[in-house]
UniProtKB/TrEMBL annotation:
Belongs to the ABC transporter superfamily. InterPro entries: AAA+_ATPase, ABC_transporter-like_ATP-bd, ABC_transporter-like_CS, ABC_transporter_ATP-bind, P-loop_NTPase. One of its GO terms (molecular function) is ATP hydrolysis activity. CDD domains: ABC_NrtD_SsuB_transporters (cd03293). Gene3D superfamilies: P-loop containing nucleotide triphosphate hydrolases (3.40.50.300). It comes from the Bacteria. SUPFAM superfamilies: P-loop containing nucleoside triphosphate hydrolases. This is ABC transporter ATP-binding protein. SMART domains: AAA (SM00382). Pfam families: ABC_tran. Keywords: ATP-binding, Nucleotide-binding, Transport. Residues 6-244 form the ABC transporter domain.
Amino acid sequence: MARPFVEFDRVTLTYGEGEEATPALDPTSLGIAEGEFVAVVGPSGCGKSSLLKLVSGLLKATSGNVVVAAQEVTAPIKIVGMAFQNPNLLPWRSTLRNVLLPAEIVQPHRARYRRDKAPYVERARQLLRTVGLEGFEQKLPWQLSGGMQQRASLCRALMHEPSLLLLDEPFGALDAFTREELWAVLQALWMQKPFTVILVTHDLREALYLADTIYVMSARPGRILLRRNFDLPRPRTLDSTYDARFVQALAELRAHIAEARTPVPAFA
Ligand SMILES: Nc1ncnc2c1ncn2[C@@H]1O[C@H](COP(=O)(O)OP(=O)(O)OP(=O)(O)O)[C@@H](O)[C@H]1O
């Protein structure tokens, strides 16, 4: 069997030291295949964002090893694209120039971009077309709706063709309709040329719509309670969410999340 693209070998994470120590992640081992779409769900504060930071090298494991693309992660890695709940577009740059940002920063693209911008501009325009933002290339972020900004942020995350996309609740701040539209957009981008995705979300329907594999984490310190494969055919649509297999998997995940949460003490 091929080596996983992302590997955690008994990884733990503790923030702070001594009396201030906060254990965030209990020993965690997992393997994610190249091109796999993974969703991570779990109660608030269970360590989902920390897990992404360990993968990207923004945080160093307290013990254990994190390996990405056969390299041990010891510093921030370059092959990664990221998007968060807040689109974080630079307000003074047009949509197109926001999407082009990674080409200006990440090597080896930076050097190539300086020599010849045209292929990058074409890729940025193509990405914007795919997410339905054709015609908005020259608009500034404040001229876009929240959903449009998040579309642009996804394009920016994919600009430098990262082999790994890390998404931290990217649709969390959007209304339900826009969120559902963006599931289809993200799925379409991924289906064009599957890259490895780790999506952190609180939305179990989102996890099942998008992912091949769903990890359920326990309350802090986080550990993996369940790894659930979900192979409903793609492209999945909103109709897929009424499929009996979807409904059953949703009920299963709900039950595990209920277990994962620390019980709230009853009022006397
Ligand atoms: N810089 C830090 N210093 C100390 N503790 C931290 C730090 N960052 C996170 N923590 C703690 O580690 C735990 C895990 O945090 P993390 O942000 O990974 O959780 P999460 O599952 O992403 O939460 P949420 O779903 O609410 O966004 C939390 O209980 C948090 O209080």
